[in-house]
Amino acid sequence: MQYRRDIDGLRAVAVLPVVAFHAGFNQLPGGFVGVDVFFVISGYLITANIFAELSRGDFSLVRFYERRVRRIAPALLAVLAATTALAYFTLLPGEMLEYARSLIASVFSASNVFFWTQAGYFDSDSSTKLLLHTWSLSVEEQFYIVFPLLLSFVLRAFPTRLKPIIWVLMAVSFASAVASVALAPSAAFYLPHNRAWELMVGSVLALGMVPKIRSAWLRETAALSGLAMIGAAVLFYREQMPFPGAAAILPCLGAGLVIAAGETGPTLMGRLLSWRPVVFIGLISYSLYLWHWPVMVGAQMNSFLFGGAPAMAIKIGTVLVSIVLATISWWFIERPFRNGPLKLAQKPLFQLAGVAAAVLVAVGVAGQFDQGLAYRYSPRVQQIADLLTDKSHRQMREGSCFLPSGSTVDDFDMACVKQDPQRRDYLLIGDSHAAHLWYGLAKAMPTVNVMQATASGCKPTLTHPGSAEERCVALMDRMFDGYLPSHKVDTVVLAARWKRDDLPRLEATLTKLRAQGLDVIVFGPIIEYRSPLPRLLAVSDRMHDPDFVDEQRVDVSAVDRAVGKLARQKGARYVSLASAMCPAGHCLEVDGKGYPVQFDYGHLTGSGSEILARRVVAKDPGLSQGPIAAAPATTNAKGA
Question: What are the residues whose beta carbons fall under 8 Å from the beta carbon of 92, sequence distance 6 or more?
Fold first, then answer.
């Protein structure tokens, strides 16, 4: 097909928001939709080429994959090699073990499946997943394993039914994506059958399955509307919203409109997209996508190297470094291998790519057999780092009393809120920052039956933001509107990873609970860190810098004071976890055996939960003995 500069410009529109989003520019909270725009562009261009060759009768699957290898492999293999070197010098053993697995998966275009199998609320921090971004490349390659064969078969066997078959497959993929967003969010995000419809938006345009836009003013309207739709998604979407599913329609349809508008003539938006600087970003967009994530993850893992540099300067710096590396990669790797002096014939191309891939796989296998190349660190660091790969979190009772992402309210075990007539009944409600308190509170208050109703990301409030998952709304409704009115509970305990935005909803919740005569305890925010505490302690040990961990601590004091003030105003008891963890400015970091008390940025380990709970109860023995002042009478009847 004829080269279109505006499509390279559209690539720039796709990649820049992704890079800005990953760099941490909050002004573009929906920048992640750039990947969906890429899918539409890819589906359009690749389908157009396949269909043209099939129509001429000279389509070759081998030639098709040769073009894919020539386009994808050189820059990808270079990035994988560079990232592996970065991983060797920066990742802890457990992290290196996971990296080795992701490296092998990336080489075989299966990283989306790998990261899907690893997905979970307590999955290792994305700030150490150097190859996380390769999931989208794997989705594309898996699509192009199936789609050319499907297109070829349908054109031979059912030539007159191509369009309805494509529409049906697209509809099935879309329906699966919508259903998966609600039932299995990780599968909706990573798996190819839930993303195929996005690539097929481009395919239906390439196959001429929608009417061409002949009118000049309609072309202008379509192009402007398309860019506006993409822009709206970039500006107003939020990472917490259910995605992709139906929400992906906006950026995908927007990309489709821009492409369709440029098929039959020029437009003002097309001329803007064809502006040389914009086209240049589009030309380097593949390399920019490949390089930006390792650069940003590397910068985050080694943030201590930047001293007191302003956060904005670091963000801008990582973007500029990514663009420089992408330009070098495009000029010296992509272009020469595709159409320059390094362009190889088919056989040597496959051989070279195969050898390079085999070397990377061998490195990945070595990382597996040598337990993440643990020899790089001292036994003490290895001991600390073990927590980074411990995902059991049994102390939270995950899957029964704590609902992780991807679960539903039906998974909640009502035995978690079974009352005990021999003890005081406390109902602990909240998110994971409530769940990690259960173990310690149960140990520190043996005279109290600590019941638990918690779910990841679910604040214990009567109302919820629009981005709240259905399981959050359902569980909180079950507790506040169903359980509490029908069971006499001695004390309701609310705990969460509180933010300032939660205060109005928390105020309304406290007002209602106190009006119902319920005794309420609110636990404040816990100490947090910019990176997982085990990693920070390991780096501190390696650098022989005892102050390093303190420098990476997040200041939660303002939120702590605000939540405490609100709780006391509403007649609730308040427990400042931040003060309990850091008495006199000395923060609790390790337990008696030297293990970190938090296994990531802030969640408590079992021992950390117990130590903190015992501190809290020792400071306020009345915590397990009822309210400070008698609450108004209630008509609730205590039941099992």
Answer: 372, 377, 381, 385, 388, 534, 535, 538
